[in-house]
């Protein structure tokens, strides 16, 4: 059931409410499976979203959280979602040991280095989004920036 829940649905609900519900489901599953606190904060979200985004974003958030738990060994993870003008920005941060590299790198720099969350970048790119990673010895911050409106996802 867990793996089936991570697959895109055949009839997506493209409302902000369904996205919030799906993100909360992802959070709850991870908390149960990993026994790790995950904080989900949603500041704002457009009322209507592209179907590809409501399907893809929970998978991206899951990917980012699990990567942090597997590789960074944090004591907590937080997810912040903020809707901006024609954009949706998601930040997954943790207090773990960070990535093997230090500093802040945008999508192009990560690709050039062959570093960062490669599977996450592969999920974000088809939606026209960008991934930025900031890594320190006291944690990491993965930012996902996705277009929402015209010409976007």
State mean pLDDT (0 to 100 scale): 87
DSSP strand content: 25-35%
The helix/strand order is HHEHEEEHHEE
> What strand order characterises the main sheet?
1-2-3-6-5-4
Can you tell me the overall shape?
A: globular
Helical proportion, percent range: 25-40%
Could you describe the 3D structure shown?
The protein has helices at residues 2-6, 16-34, 51-72, 107-113, 118-124; strands at 38-44, 77-84, 87-94, 103-105, 130-136, 139-147. The chain is α+β, with helices and mostly antiparallel strands and 153 residues long. Strand 2 and strand 3 (87-94) form a beta hairpin. Helix 2 (16-34) packs parallel to helix 3 (51-72) and helix 3 (51-72) runs antiparallel to helix 5.
Keywords:
153 residues; alpha+beta; 6-stranded mixed β-sheet; 5 helices; globular
In short:
By secondary structure, the protein is α+β, with helices and mostly antiparallel strands. It is built from five helices and six strands, in the order ααβαβββααββ.
Topology summary:
Layout: H1 2-6, H2 16-34, E1 38-44, H3 51-72, E2 77-84, E3 87-94, E4 103-105, H4 107-113, H5 118-124, E5 130-136, E6 139-147
Parallel strand pairs: 1-2
Antiparallel strand pairs: 2-3, 3-6, 4-5, 5-6
């Amino acid at each position: 059931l867990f793996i089936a829940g991570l697959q895109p649905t055949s009839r997506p609900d493209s409302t902000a409410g369904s996205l919030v519900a799906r993100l909360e489901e992802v959070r709850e599953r991870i908390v149960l499976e990993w026994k790790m606190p995950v904080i989900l904060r949603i500041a704002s979200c457009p009322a209507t979203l592209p179907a590809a985004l409501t399907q893809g974003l929970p998978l991206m958030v899951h990917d980012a959280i699990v990567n942090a738990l597997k590789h960074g060994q944090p004591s907590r993870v937080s997810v912040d979602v903020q809707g901006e003008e024609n954009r949706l920005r998601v930040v997954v941060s943790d207090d773990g040991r960070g990535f093997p590299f230090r500093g802040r790198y945008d999508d192009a720099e990560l690709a050039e280095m062959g570093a960062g969350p490669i599977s996450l970048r592969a999920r974000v790119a088809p939606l026209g989004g960008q991934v930025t990673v900031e890594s320190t010895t006291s944690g990491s911050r993965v930012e996902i920036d996705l277009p929402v409106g015209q010409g976007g996802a």
